[in-house]
Amino acid sequence: MKQNLSTVAQRRPSLIVWLLMLAGIFGSIAYSRPLSAQEKSFLWKVSKEGKSIYLLGSIHYLKKENFPLRKPILDALASSKRLVLEIDLNNTPAGSAQRATLEKAVYHDGSTLEQNVEPDVFKLASRRATELGIDPQVLKPMKPWFVALTMMAIKFQQLGLDANVGVDRYLAERAKASGKPTSGLETLEFQLTLLDQLPKRDQEMMLRETVTELDLLDKNIDQIVQSWLKGESASLEALLMAGMKEYPDLHQKIILDRNRRWLPKIEQIIGQGGGAMVVVGAAHLVGKDGVVEMLKNHGYELEQQ
């Protein structure tokens, strides 16, 4: 059954999910399995001078049976006065988000996807679209980054994964239900612009990698989930960053630059008294340039939960 442009747009994941896709974070997490004495969650308590926050590395695609989340995560939210996400999901209306996305996701100068990628990439993208149930004609006005994002979203749905029940959305809904205020470290407009302004070669690379590696998601998920589930930062870093080494400019823009922009905002939250839970993609917490190490270097005490 073929899908039109409107249907495809409605099925797109949030843009922050695409940023995490670039780092390789997806997962079907067996949250119901109890933690052993040695295992941790991908959650840290960040403290300094009697003020503290919780910092969680998130997964954006899950299955419904993965809920409720583990107790340390739910306890951290319950004890926090507010929730801070990458973007404020509770104050980003779906309708306006879709309109803003489509404004940047399609060409407005009459050009087409076929004119902006190599012939082999367009041919493979068209074939993949057919396999996923998308009419290849729908792809013509779309930019490469949005085609890649859309294909990933549909493939994930076929694997039983859903962004609507991901960690961020779940915690945002719980915060709203309990009357906790929510906010974002950045805006949807920023994320859209970040993707849309990537050089043409980087956008084509995203699409090439997506249509080439789509069938390997199951294997990648299994490897990454085990490290995430056990809170193993080193092994997760190796899995997430391996692919990014080939694209240092993209890694800089998607991960490192955003980490540096977030650091003073997180420090400000702590300085104002703490009492918050900050949730960002797990790829932003690993490595020497991750937010965890950056906070340690700024004199904060971090205790993994």
Could you explain the architecture of this structure?
With 305 residues, the protein is of the alpha/beta class. It has one domain. The protein is built from 14 helices and 6 strands. β1 and β2 form a beta hairpin. α4 runs parallel beside α9, α6 packs parallel to α7 and α7 packs parallel to α10. The longest helix has 24 residues. The chain is globular. It starts with a helix and ends with a strand.
Percent of residues in beta strands? 5-15%
Largest sheet: 6 strands, mixed
> What general outline do the C-alpha atoms trace?
globular
Mean pLDDT figure? 83
Total number of helical segments?
14
The secondary-structure element order is: HHEEHEHHHHHEHHHHHEHE
Number of strands: 6
Q: How far apart are the termini?
A: 46 Å
Spatial strand order of the main sheet: 4-3-5-2-1-6
The secondary structure category is alpha/beta
Give unreliable regions as ranges: 1-35
Q: Over all CA atoms, what is the radius of gyration?
A: 19 Å
The total tally of domains equals 1
